[in-house]
Amino acid sequence: MRFSVKKTLLWGGLGFLVLSALLIILPWFLNPDYLQNLVLQQIQQTFGSHVRVGRTSFALFPSPHFLVSDVVVKERLDSHAVFRAESMSLKLGVGQLLQKKLVVREFFLDHPEIEVRRDKSGAWRFLGHSTDDSSLSFLGSFLVLGKLKVTNGKIIVIDESPFDSVRGVVLEDVSLVSETSYEDVAILSLLTLSGNLRQVHDTASFRLSGTFEATSNVPLSSLESQDIFFEQMTFAGHMETDNFAVNQLAEHVPFGAVLSKFPGALRAESQFKWVKKETTSQLAVLQYGFCQFCHYA
Questions:
Q1: Do 15 and 142 belong together in one domain?
Q2: Is residue 296 over pLDDT 50?
């Protein structure tokens, strides 16, 4: 009995010392001002230098996470916003925080509004990045090795090429969930994307789900490199849409005159695989189906 009491007192004393040490050390490591600057630097590295945020707050429980509200991103200080979000939540790794490193384990975006543009040269541009970049290197800037969740999103696509007129597509009520893991240079992500495509008189729902695999130029275990890019990317998945008005494609394709006379709307479904390696890409449609006059319960 005496041994049990002594052992209990010993462990209790050690626990008290550890708790006291944590109470002294954690405020220094988890200084809110320090963390705020660290998180804002991470946001700037991801979205660009012209970022404005509203209120920020840090919470340690139930897990370390940082909340940012009213995020506005511009490509240039004097240009219009190309990205907005009502709120952004970043769940952080505890071990990395104690090492004064910031690793985002979960990333949540609510009510984001994103603008993607294709210029007259044919290059797609987003937040200062371009598809002219080697191996779509800008995608490495948005890599979240964990969970990424987007709710109530809006995506505006503006196309200035190759015709004289400017065309646009708007996706509303966009939701995205992805779970990403890695081993050395191999990346695996399971994702689901859904929303509504705005049309002239109504909307067309869409849903995309599949598996994204990529090979990076450097191992991802340390996450210290700022020059991560993907040497090869593969996406295999399933796409379906309902109430899609085919004639709205008339202004986007060379043979649009034929499509402009296509009546009604379609329900479409397909299995496909997309592979990109360096500057070449290949899209294979493995299975597809269309139905024009479909009625579902």
A1: no
A2: no
- Are 1 and 105 found together in one domain? no
Judgement on whether residues 107 and 134 belong to the same structural domain of the protein = no
Residues 99 and 142 in one domain: no
Contact 200, 248 (CB under 8 A): yes
More confident residue, 105 or 113: 113
293: amino acid identity, one letter: F
Q: How many domains does the chain have?
A: 3
Place of tokens 């384990």: 105
| 3 and 79 fall within a common domain | no
Residue 13's domain comprises 1-30
User: What pLDDT is recorded for position 67?
Assistant: 86
The string of pLDDT tens digits covering residues 275-295 is 877 667 788 888 777 776 554
pLDDT digits (tens, 9 = 90+) for 21-49: 555 445 555 566 776 777 777 777 777 76
Q: What confidence score (pLDDT) does residue 263 get?
A: 64
Q: Is the pTM of this model over 0.90?
A: no
Is the residue at 118 inside a domain?
Answer: no
